[in-house]
Design brief:
The longest helix is centred in the C-terminal third of the chain and has 21 residues. The protein has about 375 residues and is α/β, with parallel strands linked by helices. Helix 10 packs parallel to helix 12. It has 2 domains: about 240 residues, Aspartate Aminotransferase, domain 2, CATH 3.40.640.10; about 120 residues, Aspartate Aminotransferase, domain 1. Helices cover about 45% and strands about 15% of the residues. The protein has 13 helices and 15 strands. It binds pyridoxal-5'-phosphate.
Length: about 375
Amino acid sequence: MIEDVQLRIPGPSPVPPQVALAMGQPMIGHRGSEFSALYERLIPFAKELFGTSGDVLFVTGSGTAGMETAVANIVSPGDKVLLLTCGSFGNRFGQILAAYGADVDRLEAPWGECIDPNAVATKLQAAGPYKAVFVTHNETSTGVANDLKAIGHAVHEFGQGALLVVDSVSALGGMEVRMDDWHLDIVVTGSQKALMLPPGLALIGVSERAWEVIDQAQSPRFYFNLKKYKASGDKAQTPYTPNIALLFGLEKTFALMQAEGLTNIYRRHDLMRDMVRAAIRALGLELLTADSCASSTVTAVKGSSEVPSEPLRKTLKEQFKVQVAGGQDQLKGEIFRIGHMGFAGPRDMLTIIASLECALAVHGKPEVLGRGVKAAQEVWLREVQR
Ligand SMILES: Cc1ncc(COP(=O)(O)O)c(C=O)c1O
């Protein structure tokens, strides 16, 4: 039997058929008027999505390329920076900063918890000034959403001019980002998460204030030189051949997102989060994170001695055709992670939960059948009947 495995990892995420079709359009030259027209059509909604009147630039590369671009353009060797980290992707920012010779001070939260904005304010006052603060909006390795608005205000108030650089790779498009209102200076995202595209495109928002620092930064850079992207962008081009197929697809995802409306998109993601969390509890499994810092795009669930996460994940994929992700680094073998971002809705959550119940039944828990689905249905009904 040929049956698709449903991809429910926290990226890459499923690509809508309309988007896949759009990516198949005949190729165009990247120095021609058709490309510039496409570029100009993309910018207004890109700015709306980032919540900025500043620049949004396209760099061909994965999310990590976007993170490295941010570091290379802001940090000079020896610059003192503050890294806020609560998981594997925060630590990746730390590795990139170390590679660029930054003097990195860290404020860490235990894995599964979020960064406390008050602790950020205290740290900035006690140990600042810093050139920049680096933070992960949505820590995909643990399913934690940091309070970007509160962190933005803390850095604005107590940062003595420090820039705030944000990895929103697994949030932007599924969770609200307001660069200008929240005082965010550089925001990076990737195509393969809530933007419903294949991997390979980084989108980078840059504030007016960030350009002043970029002009002064001493780190070596060529492909990732943001000033080149800005100069070309002002002519509706990119400095090097972009992934044109992904930009065709981006135009279609933007059209789908505009039709749904950003407020509705964020509500849909919150609803998926709430359905999954209610179901996991009803199934007697343990969530890694508290409700107060739960991500709207990915949920981390603990395995137990009775039902360890890896065999459960294997059964879920092989027998019941739903692929979820495992844990990373120190959480490897300890948790599984359900992605609910982009091209996904409440009905898909019922499928995931029903399949998970089947997998749990195979692993000696037949009594759970129906419990998670019912809990998720109740959350969905409450939302519909509101
Ligand atoms: C929060 C976060 N940052 C960065 C990345 C790295 O992105 P990429 O794998 O596209 O380089 C990911 C990918 O999962 C992520 O979730």
